[in-house]
Amino acid sequence: ATTSAMIGGTARTLRQQVALRTEELEREVAERKRAAEELQLRQKQLLHADKMTSLGILVAGVAHEINNPNGLLQLSLPQLSKAYQSMEPILEEHYRQQGDFRLGWFNYTRMRDEIPQMLREMLESSNRIKRIVEDLKDFARSHDSGHDAAVDLNQVTAAALRLLDNTIRKATRNFRVSYEAQLPGFRGNGHRIEQVIVNLVLNACQALTSSEQAISVRTFSAAADGMVVLEVCDTGCGIDDVGLERITDPFFTTKRDIGGTGLGLSISAGIVKDHRGQLEFSSQPGGGTTVRLLLPICQEVAHDG
User: Fold this and answer.
1) Alpha helix (H) ranges present in the chain?
2) Beta-carbon neighbour count of residue 184 at 10 Å?
3) By the 8 A CB rule, do 214 and 234 touch?
4) What is d(CA 213, CA 231) in angstroms, rounded to the nearest whole number?
5) What is the pLDDT of residues 185-244, one digit of tens each?
6) Per-residue b or e along 67-94, where b marks 16 or more CB atoms closer than 10 Å to that residue's CB
7) Burial bucket for residue 298 (CB in 10 Å: 0-12, 13-18, 19+)
8) DSSP, res 198
9) DSSP for 142-160?
């Protein structure tokens, strides 16, 4: 009986040792798996950063090459428009005396209406190229300076909304804005954050399919998280899961047909990252979109709003 008890005790000890060793091995396997996943994530982040650096260099070069010929168009088109205005009385007098005549490939009676329109459209297109180039240059620019000022988010938001007043009025009849009083400030570059807010509100305007749909903007403090927050909500078309995953990717856009370049939110995300902040998106198709801009609180700044 004594021998059996000893054997039983030894067996239990062995089982306990095996169980302990099994737990240790499982922990080691789990730790190695976590380490491997973290390494893979770091490698992806480094690869992405390298791609973004290369893309920034490429974009800066392309923007410069486009800017030069477009600059010539910007100078020449207004002069051509002015020259045609000076020529019109002469052409009209010739038409009254001699009747209709060929001007280029078409008759003068057709071209006298189309030439001013063509010149206007060419200048508008050139201005659009200029805006795209500015976006490209902004995307490629390093945002590493001018973030030392103490800034009031309420004031920056109000300035951005003033810039967009006409756009908002055209987009919706249901616009609301509310500012939290005594809102803590953040440390950074107010002009850069204003650019982000303009982009977020402009996106909200473009998401609406009816002027009856609404946009609301509000600021508030998430003191427990050490953040001040700007929230932009719209009741527009919404974004699917694939769009949400790629929403800040450079050149990804759902608005290509209306001139979207896919750079606005990418630039905005870079600006917010430079401010040690966050951009959070929630949406579903047909259910509207909510965007939150979170910025770290700078305690020495607080205003009445």
Assistant:
1) 2-98, 108-140, 153-163, 165-171, 190-207, 241-245, 264-274
2) 21
3) yes
4) 17
5) 998 888 888 888 988 998 899 889 899 999 999 999 988 889 999 999 999 887 766 665
6) beebeebeeebeeeeeeeeeeeeebeee
7) middle
8) H
9) ---S---EEE-HHHHHHHH
